[in-house]
């Protein structure tokens, strides 16, 4: 047993849970390094030990270092006067008199008793929240920071990778955490999983965005078989040198890790390029993470809407609710052949169900015991590889504490929208029409979590005109050079709006894009606003109807980026984007 960790060197059968004592004054558990059942060393013990050691040195008896190990704070009932551990000479009366003198001296030093009430003990639920951080990204959001022991016990468990970016553990703005599950067979117990020759690809990837005000979080699952562009990336070598890995165009997303020696920094840069979001930190885990974490929490409840018998993942479940852990939990998050469409997209939905249930369990008051949370934190940190910005237990604690405000009903899982790849049925491609508004929504720090609906009546939506009736003149009033013609080409070729024309440059620059139309062109304006992603503030309706062949006027402002890219981020989840709330207990695998 490590003398600086779970117990003193030489102790036998020390239960780590017994080494943590609840301090009612602070509401936290504190480490007790003395053997179970032995009183903590008191100041007088240390003074006496020092005097005895000095006498031994003066007499030439040994040179042993007698400095005591750190001790727990004084507990109620322990003496503080010098010599209170010495047995007074003489009979019982003498010993009683000596004890009385000691008590009187102690009371005199302490002064009058305080009338201040002691702080009430924290509830089991609050203690659980103070201990429940570090499991993997979601566990950090589920809790708010582990107890003090994480500094002492868990530092050595964490592996780090220098990705060439080192951000502070805590940020004042939104936080983007990249979570990667690798299919590497390296590591104890992983030999039977994944591809035999895999170098450790990005098998599961989730980008978790935590809002600036820490009130909500969005976790976007990125399909591993999606075609993506992987940019060139610097990687740290074992000898300390840096090797630049060339980028590739049009390859599977999962090859952003492992392939050609790519490290998590390459996946980091690939996701940034795809989403436009700046990543703060990453966490990576292997197959063991699911097995060990599910064991540590005594299993995770999952639901199957039908019987599942997947010979590939070896998962066998009857329809209904089950508690899975270990190998069965891993089989659940890896299965796909007998659920949904049998694709990776169906497997992602199972993973989202599993992680939601894991968060709910970790948020429950069942995790107030230090022994249980010790097991969870050990399992989590042993499974983790992180960037250097959160590469210590104390930094992970700071990171988790920063995210503690997120409520579970404000955590939403979504899947990045994709389409079947016409060139390769085994892969998929990004559905930009749905993905771009989703990414814009997250970049704008808008939540996907559904709020309470207002009682006021909404106005009926305006019926959209068919493309062949949309007539508009497009001019450039602040967008990139050539934006007017580019937009006209896009409207005619992609949307079928053949009555759109290029009106050249606007007479003056505009900060914001504007669409001018008459009351009788409301249906045309509704169609164009939908295509262009125009906010309501961009729509300027005149007081008079337009002429029979009079076009609407679209002026592209400085906020215009490209046709098809929303001018303003949506505030509601775009249609067609798969999403579930982490607090939804009724999700079942179909």
Automatic annotation (TrEMBL):
Compositional bias (Basic residues): 114-128, 450-461
Family according to the record: Belongs to the LytR/CpsA/Psr (LCP) family.
Listed Gene3D superfamilies: LCP protein (3.40.630.190)
Composition bias, Low complexity: 90-113
This protein's record includes keyword Membrane: yes
Disordered: annotated segments: 1-128, 228-259, 450-485, 559-590
Domain LytR/CpsA/Psr regulator C-terminal as annotated: residue spans: 469-560
PANTHER family, A to Z: POLYISOPRENYL-TEICHOIC ACID--PEPTIDOGLYCAN TEICHOIC ACID TRANSFERASE TAGU
TM regions (residue ranges): 128-151
Domain Cell envelope-related transcriptional attenuator: 201-363
Protein name per UniProt: LCP family protein
Regions annotated as coiled coil: none
Keyword annotations of the record: Membrane, Transmembrane, Transmembrane helix
Compositional bias segments (type: Basic and acidic residues): 56-66
């Amino acid at each position: 047993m490590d003398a600086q960790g779970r117990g003193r060197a030489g102790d036998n059968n020390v239960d780590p849970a017994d080494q943590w004592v609840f301090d009612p004054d602070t509401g936290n558990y504190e480490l007790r390094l003395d053997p179970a059942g032995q009183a903590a060393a008191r100041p007088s013990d240390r003074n006496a030990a020092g005097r005895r050691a000095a006498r031994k040195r003066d007499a030439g008896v040994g040179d042993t270092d007698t400095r005591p190990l750190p001790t727990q704070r004084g507990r109620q009932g322990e003496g503080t006067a010098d010599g209170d551990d010495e047995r007074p000479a003489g009979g019982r009366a003498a010993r009683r008199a000596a004890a009385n003198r000691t008590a009187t001296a102690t009371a005199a030093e302490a002064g009058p008793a305080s009338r201040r009430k002691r702080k009430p003990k924290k509830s089991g639920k609050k203690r659980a929240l103070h201990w429940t951080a570090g499991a993997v990204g979601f566990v950090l959001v589920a809790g708010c920071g582990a107890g003090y022991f994480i500094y002492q016990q868990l530092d050595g468990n964490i592996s780090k990778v220098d990705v060439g970016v080192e951000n502070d553990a805590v940020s004042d703005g939104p936080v983007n955490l990249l979570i990667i599950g690798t299919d590497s067979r390296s590591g104890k117990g992983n030999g039977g999983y994944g591809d035999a020759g895999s170098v450790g690809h990005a098998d599961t990837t989730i980008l978790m965005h935590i809002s600036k005000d820490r009130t909500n979080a969005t976790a976007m699952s990125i399909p591993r078989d999606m075609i993506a562009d992987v940019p060139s990336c610097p990687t740290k070598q074992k000898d300390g040198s840096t090797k630049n890995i060339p980028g590739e165009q049009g390859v599977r997303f999962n090859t952003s890790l492992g392939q050609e020696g790519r490290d998590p920094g390459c996946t980091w840069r690939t996701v940034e390029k795809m989403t436009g979001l700046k990543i703060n930190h990453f966490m990576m885990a292997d197959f063991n993470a699911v097995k060990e974490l599910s064991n540590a929490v005594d299993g995770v409840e999952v639901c199957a809407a039908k019987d599942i018998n997947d010979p590939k993942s070896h998962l066998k479940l009857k329809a209904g609710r089950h508690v899975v852990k270990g190998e069965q939990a891993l089989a659940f998050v890896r299965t796909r052949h007998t659920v949904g469409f049998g694709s990776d997209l169906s497997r992602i939905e199972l993973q989202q169900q599993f992680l939601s249930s894991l968060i709910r369990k970790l948020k429950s008051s069942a995790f107030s015991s230090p022994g249980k949370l010790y097991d969870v934190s050990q399992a989590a940190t042993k499974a983790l590889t992180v960037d250097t910005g959160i590469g210590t237990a104390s930094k992970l604690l700071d990171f988790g504490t920063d995210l503690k405000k997120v409520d579970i009903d404000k955590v939403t899982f979504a899947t990045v929208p994709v389409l079947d790849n016409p060139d390769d049925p085994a892969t998929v491609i990004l559905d930009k029409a749905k993905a771009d508004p989703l990414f814009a929504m997250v970049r704008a720090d808008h939540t996907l979590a559904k709020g309470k609906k207002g009682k006021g009546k909404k106005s009926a939506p305006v019926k959209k005109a068919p493309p062949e009736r949309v007539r508009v003149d497009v001019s450039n009033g602040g967008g990139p050079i050539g934006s007017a013609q580019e937009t006209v080409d896009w409207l005619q070729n992609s949307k079928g709006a053949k009555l759109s024309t290029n009106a050249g440059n606007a007479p003056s620059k505009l900060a914001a894009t504007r669409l001018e139309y008459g009351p009788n062109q409301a249906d045309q304006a509704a169609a164009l606003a939908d295509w262009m992603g125009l906010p309501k503030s961009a729509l300027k309706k005149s007081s008079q109807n337009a002429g029979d062949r009079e076009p609407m006027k679209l002026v592209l402002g400085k906020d215009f980026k490209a046709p098809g890219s929303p001018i303003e981020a949506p505030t509601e989840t775009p249609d067609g984007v798969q999403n579930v709330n982490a607090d939804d207990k009724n999700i079942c695998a179909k």
